[in-house]
Design goal:
alpha+beta; Arc Repressor Mutant, subunit A; Nucleoside Triphosphate Pyrophosphohydrolase; 2 domains; four-stranded mixed sheet; 8 helices; 18% strand; elongated
């Protein structure tokens, strides 16, 4: 497969680098976010328009940007150093998102990356410059599910953990209908959605290390960073159910789902993924009663 032509590199430079505010290029970390944005455009749009273009990793793409784009050659000989420093920096950027529960508080929504062997996790993403925690969570959930949780988010209803240098906060959003037609607003990031029954998910690191779902076609399904949240989530659910019985739950705003016309097809998760076993690392278990799944 051919590499991009110089004409294409000039277009990428003009579109993504030439006209960005000077402040966005004053550090290599900020510059690399610009390069990463160009990389996703290359993957999602340029290669889709011309399938003959070579598939590149971000590292390979970065090297070519520094080699081919005007004014970027100054970074050419330190490309790997800049790339790996950027990867380390990204692992320190705070992450925000949401734990979305059905009205019975029995099921939690998880989404899977675009590749079939990607992990399942909560909708979430990295915070942007000058963005508040809740604003980031609202934006990320909307981008990944098409659902607007701004009216249903309560600042105090959250679980926050720190892993290494990274802070992660997830807001708990109950009363999300199982029939919600989720629809990603970004390309190439979300491959499937599924409602997972909470009682089937391990709640400690040791159990997750020996937990994996293998579908009938041999695909291994994994979970990412669920166990640190599940124990506190189950405590929250227990207290919320107690408050519901006592009539002490305040009415919160409703979520705004995406238009049905834009939603992908909804399928039964067990039928879609198979019933597989429960050995290994992450993902459903047994015949888990995942209510619905959406596959792009």
């Amino acid at each position: 497969m051919p590499l991009p032509t110089q004409e294409l590199w000039d277009e990428i430079y003009t579109r993504f680098i030439l006209n960005v505010p000077q402040g966005e290029l004053e550090t290599t970390e900020r510059m690399m976010f610009v390069v990463e944005e160009a990389f996703w455009a290359y993957e999602d749009f340029y290669r889709e328009a011309d399938p003959s273009l070579n598939k590149l990793t971000l590292r390979e793409f970065t090297k070519l940007v520094f080699e081919k784009c005007p004014g970027m050659q100054v970074y050419q000989h330190t490309s790997d150093e800049i790339f790996y420093s950027f990867q380390a920096f990204k692992h320190s950027v705070p992450v925000m998102g949401a734990i979305m529960l059905d009205p019975t508080l029995s099921y939690v929504l998880l989404l899977r990356g675009f590749k079939s062997n990607a992990s399942w996790s909560f909708p979430r993403g990295k915070i942007s410059k000058d963005e508040t925690d809740s604003a980031c969570a609202i934006r990320e959930v909307y981008e990944e599910t098409g659902v607007d949780i701004s009216g249903a988010l309560v600042e105090e209803d959250c679980i926050e953990i720190c892993t290494g240098e990274q802070r992660c906060k997830l807001y708990i959003i109950p009363d999300v209908p199982l029939t919600t037609a989720f629809a990603p607003q970004t390309r190439g990031e979300v491959g499937a959605y599924a409602w997972h029954e909470l009682k089937d998910l391990p709640s400690n690191k040791e159990d997750f290390a020996n937990y994996q779902y293998v579908s009938e076609n041999g695909t291994r399904h994994r979970f990412f960073m669920l166990w640190p949240f599940l124990k506190r989530l189950k405590t929250y659910i227990k207290q919320r159910r107690k408050n519901i019985r006592a009539g002490k739950v305040e009415k919160r705003g409703e979520i705004r789902p995406p238009p049905v016309v834009d939603a992908p097809e909804v399928q039964g998760a067990a039928a879609q993924e198979g019933e597989g076993g429960s050995q290994g690392k992450k993902r459903r278990k047994k015949k888990k009663k995942n209510a619905d799944a959406v596959q792009d």
